[in-house]
Amino acid sequence: MRYTLAVLVENKPGVLARVAGLFARRGYNIDSLAVGVTDNPEISRMTIVVRGDEKVIEQVIKQLNKLVDVIKISMLSEKESVERSLALFKVSADSKTRPTIMQIVDIFRAKIIDVGSKSLIIEITGDEDKINAMERLLRSYGILEVCRTGKIAMNRGLKSVSYEK
Amino acid sequence: MNMPDIMTGAEAVVESLRREGIEIVFGYPGGAVLPLYDVLYESDIRHILVRHEQGAAHAADGYARATGKVGVCIATSGPGATNLVTGIATAYMDSVPIVALTGQVPRVLIGNDAFQEADICGITMPITKHNYLVKDEQELPRIMKEAFYIASTGRPGPVLIDLPKDVQTEEIEFDYPKEIVMRGYKPKVKGNEQQIKRAALTILESERPVIYAGGGVIISNASEELRMLAEKIMAPVTASLMGTGAFPDEHPLSLGMLGMHGTRYANYAIQQSDLIIAIGTRFDDRATGKVDAFAPEAKIIHIDVDPAEIGKNVRVDIPIVGDCKQVLQSLLKYIDRACNSEVWLRKVEEWKKEYPLTYTYSESVIKPQYVVEEIYRACKDAIIVTEVGQNQMWARQFFRYKDPRTFISSGGLGTMGYGFPASIGAKLGRPDKVVFDIAGDGSFLMNSQELATAVSNDVPVIVAILNNGYLGMVRQWQELFFCRRYSHTCLEGSVDFVKLAESYGALGLRAERPSEVRGVIEEALRANMPTVIDFICDPEENVMPMVPAGAAINEFVEVRNKSENKLLVGAVA
Asked: Which of these CATH numbers, 3.60.15.10, 3.30.70.1150, 3.90.1700.10, 3.40.190.10, describes A82-152?
């Protein structure tokens, strides 16, 4: 099973190392990790996707909670939350293939952010499935380079992951 | 409003130590802590100069375990700091509150592979409860305050503060915080009342209860509450190695230690119980044996201050997160009668009669167990510190502990060389007590240089070396599991411990026959100075009973015929 955790941490140097080190030494598997500052500049938010059974995820949460720099942890359910990640694809494209690639870009509501004589860079955001689907379609045109972010996620509705004193 | 004091970073560190009530620190100077040592030169804080930084960490740890206060150790950057690592890991595994102060190269040089630079925060990240690299000298008072708070509260543990040399010399406005706010650190001390009620009901329904106490009982000073609970519900009490002293060994309800070298009756009781009340313990593999076969018929109540320990190793029916003392106090309110445990207690009593801890006394060769018994006879309320291995197990099995903080041992990490420096720390913390380090000839050599520390600071600890000429526990495993192939475990003839002691100015004594044991112990006690006693012991004595690694804790090793080296493992009772 994959679980998505939203983790609020102190925005201090070394915190990422503490979190990553914990996963490494206790043998937990991270699928992806994304970090960014929150509306409070002292607090960062990590979105961590962990693979494991229920017992593992319970230990992950408890061990993370023991880190002094970890402020709050919430588990996000797939149904009750939205998730996004971003990817950049550099695809080879000449005058013949460019129109069909642009069609694919349109269908996926992605963007072309760089055009060269023999290549394009496409930016796409979405959930993992959407990005994977786009990658599959682009493969036949020749993907030159891929760069993907870890996923970020947020609860739907009013329920929020925030720190109250 | 008082104007804040202006002082250097180094002065701020020492002033913070004073505010925390620190009277003694253990350390070893070097380039990157020169400013700090310059302030200590005129301070009223007593500094004990060790002879190796590892000794400083262990001494601070022994001091902390003996007193319940925070131990402090200091080392310079690079090799000084890395020499603390084993000591910090030892404290981490056994939840001991120590604060380690390390020097660091000046801030501009950090990351440049400067002379004596080591990333000690990175290195100690997995073995500290928290650590700090001080990058802004103005933050020193807050960091010092937080460090002591984190080290000593919740589940205690080591905290390291890395102090760049220039941070020590910069001037700061010193304003020691009265309280601290840490969003991410709020230990839960009060147990959930509903869970406690549920636990009480379950306890009163049980017929074969066993209390399994750990080091947490000692850390939270809950021995009295533990005794009240045991006597009120009439449940036998076993303890992990770390729980030694939490419950008096001579108490009729005591089962002694459980696990790999625990008593047979403790292990049988665990395996046949219908309820385990685990208090301040983490179900270590040395205690539980094969975890799937542990207490198969029992419900488990687990009380611990660290939520991450609950459900980590065994399934728990009723978890209670909180400080042992507070939880036990609440629990006792709901207990108004004993369990229906009379039949059970009779059974346990039979086991105790049938399978006592025992050894075969010899007139000709000193049995190590006999040495421990004689130390007990001579000084029943001593603090016993141990090294690691056979000496540690015999020190646990054959001394009768009655008070918490009188058995000090590296349980989790199993650090050879821990005992002697820790005994120096313990003696400095409890000068009123006689302190023995029960040692092996292997372990003692790992930090024997601290004899200089003991002598120059006049710390009268007694090292009792159970000298069998072997790395005894490893040799025992080789005997039992590797066909007596004693690969590199023989240490015979390597050191004359009497001369070694004398060369440091300590007293060296030796006993070669059982008849001499009592005399040398008494002589050591009379001498009241750092003393090493070399007990020449039976080289092939084994620690028994023994459960092999990975077996259920009622599956003991049965050595039937030593010469044929036959090993039988089987479940009994």
From this structure: 3.30.70.1150
Q: Which of B144, B416, B473, B544 is catalytic?
A: B473
Task: Tell me what pLDDT residue A78 has.
Answer: 87
Backbone angles phi, psi at B39, to 5 degrees: -75, -40
Closest CA of chain B from A104, distance in Å = 46
Determine what percent of chain B is predicted with pLDDT higher than 70. Answer: 97
Ramachandran area for residue B17 (φ above 0: left; ψ -120 to 50: alpha; else beta): alpha
Q: Which fold does the domain B368-544 belong to in CATH?
A: Rossmann fold (3.40.50)
Task: Give me the residue from A14, A55, A62 closest to B121, CB to CB.
Answer: A14
Is B165 among the residues known to form the active site? yes
Per residue in B378-402, pLDDT tens? 999 999 999 999 999 999 999 999 9
What confidence score (pLDDT) does residue A36 get?
Answer: 96
User: By the 8 A CB rule, do A81 and A154 touch?
Assistant: yes
What's the mean pLDDT in B221-249? Answer: 98
The ipTM is 0.92
User: Hey, which CATH number is domain B193-354, 1.10.3210.10, 1.20.120.640, 3.40.190.10, 3.40.50.1220?
Assistant: 3.40.50.1220
B7, B23, B116, B234: the catalytic one is: B116
